[in-house]
Write a structure and sequence with these properties.
- The protein is mainly alpha-helical and 182 residues long.
- The chain has a domain at 14-123: Ribosomal protein L17 (50s Ribosomal Protein L17, Chain: A, Alpha-Beta Complex), CATH 3.90.1030.10.
- The chain is built from five helices and three strands.
- It has helices spanning 14-31, 38-56, 61-75, 78-91, 125-181, and strands at residues 33-37, 100-107, 114-120.
- A three-stranded antiparallel beta sheet has the order 1-3-2.
Length: 182
């Protein structure tokens, strides 16, 4: 029985599972984004997020080298550890947690497995820049549009029925075609 066992074994023995997660963690740190199955992505999130947190907790020199050794014991890749402490750590220093994002990509045609992309949140230029740039102007425009909101709402209301008008005749045309087909 597996009462209370929260570990996803991924269909592997312990040594194989640890090697798999170690390799996936090195790849996500190196490439910032990887595509894998959903189950592996969820298991990888539990594996890699505590390691990223360890890069932030560095006050003294002894603590820095100690954290390097701990992270190296999980990754066994000098290049990935160096990348984690030099590139990733400064970028996530202010983030309180949630360093990874999992995006579902559908199924894999060969075996119907659910695919997912797991990425480091702060390294996505598409989401990061658009959210930051969209947030600041939205606050400014809301204050300035508070007085101009009724003026802007009236033209939008007039434009909406104009868009609906072409949709209705096409629906009528399809209704006319149906009786001729019968």
């Amino acid at each position: 029985m597996r009462h209370g066992d929260k570990n996803n074994n991924l269909g592997r023995k312990k040594a194989h599972r640890e090697a798999l997660l170690m390799n996936l963690a090195c790849q996500i740190i190196t490439h910032k984004r990887i595509v894998t199955t959903l189950a592996k992505a969820k298991a990888l999130r539990k594996y890699v997020e505590p390691l990223i947190t360890k890069t932030k907790k560095s006050a003294s020199k002894e603590e820095i080298s100690h954290n390097h050794r701990i992270v190296f014991s999980y990754l066994n890749d000098k290049a990935a550890v160096k990348e984690l402490f030099t590139v990733v750590a400064p970028k996530i220093a202010t983030r309180p947690g949630g360093y990874t994002r999992i995006i579902k990509l559908g199924i894999r045609p060969g075996d119907n497995a659910e695919k997912a992309m797991i990425e480091l949140v702060d390294f996505n230029e598409i989401y990061g820049n658009s959210i930051a740039s969209a947030t600041e102007p939205a606050k400014k425009t809301r204050r300035s549009k508070a007085t101009a909101a009724p003026k802007a709402a009236a033209p939008k209301a007039e434009a909406a029925p104009a868009e609906e008008a072409p949709v209705e005749p096409t629906a009528e045309v399809s209704n006319e075609e149906t009786p001729t087909a019968e």
